[in-house]
Design goal:
This protein has 172 residues and is an alpha+beta fold. Helix content is 29%, strand content 22%.
């Protein structure tokens, strides 16, 4: 297996005691392996069973990754021909910058592979794509109790101390 290119045209590889990991753009044929990782990500945040996302949201999300008019993108981490991690990100405008901003929305790795550098490789892949798109920065958030992810995030980025609020404005 040679270097695979991410959506921005860059290759990213990472090796450890386990099989080397390649970070690349998601492809249509990845759906069957992406979906369990997506479901695992959602379950981690309590969206499973009765509180699971409606399947229509998953389908629209998947379609957006493959629609060139959408600002939503996905990278996968692959080892031994299997997906072991995913990340989703999007670009948006800012009132404090002329350049676009990149929001790393979702990041998830197989539990058995956590701590092996996959999360960092996926973050690095998003940062490369953001740089190529002329973005000023990449930012993300996580739950304060997500200690495993926070150890990684504290090592690769700055916690700017913001508290996130949200308020639903529709029932859709």
């Amino acid at each position: 297996m040679g270097d695979e290119l991410d959506r921005s045209g860059h290759a990213a590889e990472m090796s450890r005691s386990q099989a080397p990991v390649v970070v690349r753009a998601i492809r249509q044929e990845d759906f069957a392996e992406w979906k369990p990782l997506w479901d695992g990500y959602n379950a981690f945040y309590g969206r499973e069973g009765d509180t699971a996302l409606p399947s229509g949201i998953t389908q629209v999300t998947w379609q957006r990754f493959h629609d060139p008019s959408e600002p939503v993108f996905a990278l996968v981490a692959e080892a031994d021909g299997k997906l072991v991690g995913i990340t989703h990100y999007l670009f948006h405008r800012s009132t404090t910058r002329v350049e676009p901003i990149c929001y790393l929305r979702d990041l998830f790795t197989l539990e058995a592979r956590r701590g092996s550098g996959i999360g960092k490789a996926l973050i690095d892949g998003v940062c490369r794509a953001a740089k190529d798109a002329g973005a000023y920065e990449v930012y993300w958030q996580t739950h304060e109790h997500n200690a495993t992810a926070r150890r990684l995030y504290d090592a690769v980025a700055e916690n700017e101390g913001f508290i996130v609020y949200s308020r639903a404005v529709s029932s859709a």
